[in-house]
Design goal:
Helices cover 40% and strands 16% of the residues. The protein is of the alpha/beta class and 250 residues long. Strand 4, helix 2 and strand 5 form a beta-alpha-beta unit. The longest helix has 14 residues.
């Protein structure tokens, strides 16, 4: 089993998790999704969740190829994509490799196709997260505006440690932060929605205006109130509503 599913609707949606997530991380949103209209597929990357012990190169190309292979196995010729954080970069790599198969895309605090710049201090923090739980906690706290409970922060870190290997976390950091393929997707006419949390200082509205909104001519942006980088946990009802309002008409 390399994925989870929810719903049996005619519109297939492949939802791609973030760096500290897994297929199981979407379970907070699932009760609020319309399973009669949509069929949601939640894959794990190599080294995550149900594929915890599966080795790989942990590149965006590899992750996108796995997504397309899963779609083939499930008989999904065309589908929409939803990507959270790092999953936003994987989502765009799928688009670059198979644009004819992508119906629409929704990025939730998504990493742009141009990667993410880091200064030396930030890189030390993020690169240390593969082996240090404390680093993961600081990152989660920072990217949600230093406003949520320690109990929740600990739960996110515990989920991440349970559902990912240090090798996958380290490898995928290089992939999403230091891979630039925006020239391959720039100008693509696919309809895109990007959703960011008002309390996300890393991948907020300004970043989306400078990247997604510049590269995709049919891109809209929404800022979610009372959310940071983890709207999946922070505002699941509002997030599910926003995603499905967009996808319903595509």
């Amino acid at each position: 089993m390399t994925h989870e599913e929810y719903g049996e609707g005619p519109h297939a949606v492949i939802a791609l998790h973030g760096w500290f997530g897994s297929a199981a991380a979407w379970r907070t949103v699932r009760p609020h999704l319309n399973g009669a209209e949509f069929r949601y597929v939640f894959p794990d990357y190599r080294g995550y969740g149900s594929r915890l012990h599966e080795t790989g190169d942990h590149t965006l190309k590899e992750a996108a190829a796995d997504v397309l292979a899963l779609a083939d196995r499930l008989g999904l010729e065309r589908f929409s994509l939803v990507g959270h954080s790092m999953g936003g970069a994987v989502m765009q790599r799928v688009l670059a490799d198979a644009p004819h198969r992508v119906r629409a895309m929704v990025g939730i605090s998504p990493v742009p196709a141009g990667g993410v710049p880091f200064d030396d201090q930030a890189w030390a923090l993020f690169s240390g997260a593969a082996d240090e739980p404390a680093n993961r906690r600081v990152i989660v706290d920072m990217t949600t505006g230093n406003r949520l409970s320690g109990v929740w922060l600990d739960a996110v870190v515990a989920h991440s440690r349970r559902h990912s290997t240090p090798a996958a976390v380290a490898g995928f950091l290089q992939a999403w932060a230091r891979t630039d393929f925006h020239a391959e997707i720039k100008g693509n006419p696919v309809e895109v929605k990007v959703i960011v949390g008002e309390h996300d200082p890393a991948l907020g509205a300004d970043v989306m205006e400078a990247t997604f909104r510049q590269w995709y001519p049919r891109c809209e942006l929404e800022v979610l109130s009372n959310a940071g980088h983890y709207a999946i946990d922070e505002t699941p009802v509002a997030l599910a509503t926003s995603v499905e309002r967009f996808l319903t008409t595509r």
